[in-house]
Amino acid sequence: MKLTSVVLFSALAVTARGAERVLRFEKDVRPIVKAHCTHCHGEEEKPEGGVDLRLRRFMDQKLDGGSQVVVAGHPEQSELVRLIKNGEMPKKGKQLSAAELETIEKWIAQGAKTAKPEPMALAPGPIISDDDREYWAFQPVKRPAVPKDVDNRKVRTPVDAFLLKSMTKQGLSFAPEADRRTLIRRVTLDLTGLLPTPQEVEAFVNDQSSLAYEQLVERLLASKNYGERWARHWLDVVGYADSNGYSEADSVRPQAWRYRDYVIRAMNADKPWDEFIQEQLAGDELAGATHADYQQAVLDPHRTDQLIATAFLRMAPDGTGDAPDDAKLAKNQVIAEQMKVMTSSLMGLTVACAQCHDHRYDPITQVDYYRLRAVLDPAYNWEAWRAPAQRLYSLYSPQERAKAAEIEVKAKEIEAEARAMSKKFLDEIFEVEIKKVPEAEQAAFRVARDTPVAKQTPEQKALIKKYPSALATYSLNLYDQKKQDIVDAKMAEAKKLRDTKPVEGFVMALTEVKGQVPATKLFNRGDHDQPKQALTPGELSILASPQIEPFKPVPVSSGSSGRRLAYAQWLTSGKHPLTARVLVNRFWMNHMGRGIVNTPGDFGRQGELPTHPELLDYLADEFVKSGWKLKPLHRLILLSSAYRQSSVNQASLQADLENRFYARFKLRRLDAETLRDSMLAVTGTLVQSSYGPPSGIGRDAQGRVITGIDKSTITVNKVDPGGADDFRRSIYVQVRRSKPVTVLDTFDAPIMTPNCELRAQTTVAPQSLLLMNDTFVLDSSRRLADRLEAAAPGNRVEQIKRVWELLFGKPASQADVTRGIAYLDEQTKALTQYHHDIQHPKGVVPNPPQEAMASFCQILCSSNRFLYVE
């Protein structure tokens, strides 16, 4: 449920002693008219109809017909009310809601009051009011004191104290602590995206140490699987994809995987996030690399990583290399989409809404938007554009480049030798074949043969057509296949030699062209063909205050403008009011199932208000004071009583259905990647190789997108097995915007358009149908059954117990075993009858008991007990 500022300020008119609250223009009415009216009536240079609604006193204006915009005390006489009621205003956009109209009418009836005197004059454009500046998200982060007046017996970390303080006011408290089997399954899936093994579960359950849980958390944080799991969260936010999107072509980004690997390495190394963000926004400037001068950077592994990191700013859809219909539009759309990714991921604001006009709800102007765009423009100069292929940088060292050039020279010499050999053979054949041409025409035929096709006269063409068998110019294999084989063998030598070249890798990066700093202009209504005034780079105006010092770009020694580096350093200075809050809110959300601000990409007035603002600020301040490192923050959350509690709390379920007060652990389904990876892991087929190019995907004959080698043609869909690559973790599977992997897409893996701020978690029929019919699920179930048979041949009781431990981390009860045996007996009988009644292809030997076990495994893998984290 969203709590917008409009609802908060205007719908709740409650005061002490039951008196009706007096509404004020600034808090109650101005947000409404700003959202619906002032874009036309006040923010343009010439307000429509001459009506300006930005200030209360402007509303006393008389209109041509004699009516007045607002008549204090008389809503029925106010033209503003009449026009809204009749649906005549606003002419564009969404109509006012009944609650918003009621607020305006009540305000007018109360005398149309303001909270304080208004300025005597205003320049055209938006107003950033004191109320805007006082909004919580724009205030500097202030570390609150940890609450003391709570039940200290339930406090393990400061997180608990803040939560207990708000819970107590609601008559709530923590649920009992989850049992150890539940806890190890929860935290292992949370930190690694994989199920704990039965051995790991039993070791934790039997560990009597008082620090057993703490040691478990440390082991998981040190696992390489941790980086693969938590990189996925950030890759969602930045819109990671292995394809360019934008158009139907959706061309492949063959080097994007280096950025994915960079993020995984950064997570595992616990790279400080201030450094992590600076590298992603300005790694090229840190490395001293520009477009024409990058080579020294890629010779240094650290600087190469910094260059790779800038692919953060290359993740937006980019169809400029795919011959778009409107090239200008495509270029500017890349910048607009990348602006959305940058601002939603690092600032938690919908800045993109100000591209064409001032933001309707938040104090973000169109000028602000283009001042931020000016930060990127030297790298994204749309009038001197570089397509994706022109933003790839070779990883060759000078020695490797020289070696490759030397090999290429030799290969070309061999090819020249092969071509000379072919010509010699053809000439020999020609001398034989030309004798078939009448002697009188042989001389003319020789001239015609030696003349390039484009320069042949009609007479020459006719002569060649008359005696085609004597031509012997192009196709040696038509005359003598053995000689053609000799030529092919020589050509093969060239290819073999080229294969010895050092492998040339490339970095997909963002750089600037030295000395090229374009002027950024505001586009009227966002139209690049209507440029207006030039703007300099800068931060949002709302953040310009005595407490907050804006960033100041300084050119760097490499020749780059330094704009992105200065901006990145400002964002991570610890003084920016949004960056740390936005980041820790996402970290909290990924652990606890909902954000303190449950609209992680929108901290503005249309987003939800924080349920625990003091806790949010405490976490943000702690994050910065801990050196911007994530793992200490993990510990702060994971070791808390709040995280360890059971998902069952009847009091909380009755009083707080959405779990806004965190009085129980939020029950939630495995996400798409965790589901696929866990199924691979329990079958024993998961390939744990890390890093490198992605596993391929393709569309099979049934229309499903699966892992494998795409062999499709225009008319036929076909995917060949890709071997071990088909069984790698999902983070290493190719991400195509136009071709999401079916099993992941069905379970809400996002399609990046351009990024994903918050994953949906749906419960829909296609998910059940996939679990019943998809070949990935069916194959996994058969492999799991085979694994059980190998572990306990012919022993169905032990197999049932084993599968319970693998999937659920718990021993099967006697009732579970009894029901399982009953199902296997019944299913084996049915399958035996089925196989008896049909004719099998030669060589197919049915195995009803094993098929029954595979069916049983499929049921368990489709059960809520497997699919949900308690």
Description:
The protein folds into six domains: 123 residues, no CATH class; 43 residues, no CATH class; 238 residues, no CATH class; 107 residues; 76 residues, no CATH class; 95 residues, no CATH class. 46% of the residues lie in helices and 3% in strands. The protein contains 34 helices and ten strands. The strands form five sheets. The chain has a two-stranded antiparallel ribbon. Strands 3-4 form a two-stranded antiparallel ribbon. Strands 5-10 form a two-stranded antiparallel ribbon. The two termini are 23 Å apart. Keywords: Heme, Iron, Metal-binding.
Enumerate the strands of the largest sheet in spatial order, edge to edge or round the barrel: 1-2
Structure class: mainly alpha
What is Rg?
34 Å
Total of domains: 6
Arithmetic mean pLDDT: 92
Count of DSSP strands: 10
Which segments are poorly predicted (pLDDT under 50) over 5 or more consecutive residues?
Answer: 1-18
Shape: globular
DSSP helical segment count: 34
How much β-strand is present in the residues? under 5%
Descriptive tags:
Cyt_c_Planctomycete-type; mainly alpha; two-stranded antiparallel ribbon; 3% strand; globular; iron; 46% helix; metal-binding; two-stranded antiparallel sheet; 870 residues
Quick summary of this structure?
Pfam families: PSCyt1 (PF07635), PSCyt2 (PF07583), PSD1 (PF07587). Helix content is 46%, strand content 3%. By secondary structure, it is mostly helical.
